[in-house]
Predict the 3D structure of the following.
Amino acid sequence: MPTSLKVTFTGGGDTALAACLELPDGAEPRAYAIFAHCFTCGKDAVAASRIARALTDHGIAVLRFDFTGLGQSGGDFGNTGFSSNVHDLVAAADYLRAEHAAPSLLIGHSLGGAAVLAARHLVPEVRAVATIGAPADPSHVAHLLRDARDTIEREGEATVSLGGRDFCVRRSFLADIADQPQAERIRELKAALLVMHSPQDEVVGVDNARRIFDTARHPKSFVSLDGADHLLTRRPDAEYAAVVLAAWASRYLPEPDASAEAQQAVFEAQQDTAVIVAETGTGPLQQLITAGRHHLVADEPVPVGGDTGPNPYDLLLAALGACTSMTLRMYADRKSLPLEKVTVSLRHDRIHAKDCEDCESTAGFIDRIDRVIRLEGPLTQEQRARLLEIADKCPVHRTLTSETVIHTSLHSDDQALTGAQ
């Protein structure tokens, strides 16, 4: 179990901020991170606590704290704004630098995500930044104030109910969130970026994730938190986010007891590897798949696995479906066909060879994939027939239907161990 330490430090407004430092159990942290919570939330929010504790399993210590005027921290929320949140984040980094080590990773949820993007250039040691359900611009939160905005503008302040609690919001807050060069900060982030967002987020729409991702420069990754709500209140959603975030961050954080030269060599080797699959340690079978800058989780359904991601055959069908759709799109664009949208549905099954009319084998079982393609647009019957032929020419289709050689070998470290025995 990780060790949780209650600490306090002086925030950007010279007020005492309450924090919790999650430390890996029985080991020196390989790196330190800061978690910035969502607007009017606190350090003990579900997403903050679960993600922080999951990161400790990967050797990462996490400081989560209450912004000024929230939770157990001092100060008046009414006197705060987005800029003061950024100053609190910098103060948190100063605390870690003085007492432990400077943070290498910043994580922000919702408005906290916007804050870590803004704070990055003020914490030079940061190598990676992750956002969860973050707005592309801090001014997005103004819509939460609804009818109170007119009162705030007219009278200078108003009491607003957010998340079942009342907060005093002043005119200075609106002015502050409207005057942030967020796009420039994202463009000049100079750190690896992970954008995590739910397509079903009703508080901060997923289009914000697209704007952040499009504005940022590489290295950058996007992970869809499909089915999750904005606050990640469901345990599986928070745990999924935590596992993916931890594995992604490990790519950019220092390895324990590794020299700078060794860390760079590992990083360069990873860039030359097409796909890496590794156990996460969460559940009996969960795997993290890294494909270049992209990350996804695979698993098996319960009771064998934890059902936290698609199973290997789902991923195989996904590869075929994606390749089919891309191939048809490229062909249609090249031939100027009026193809508006492609949808590919797939199913895998094992059937008796004797039941297959198109198979050479007549005994035992064979694998069968049913692929149904829907083509939308004012296409002629001849064009549809031609596109159906083109579908069978996609590279993954050809790989699956041709003779494929898979060469398996031990990693060099395992070869050395085998030779030593």
Remarks:
- The radius of gyration is 25 Å.
- Residues 299 and 311 are 5 Å apart (CA to CA).
- The first helix runs from residue 46 to 56.
- Confidence is low (pLDDT under 50) at residues 257-272.
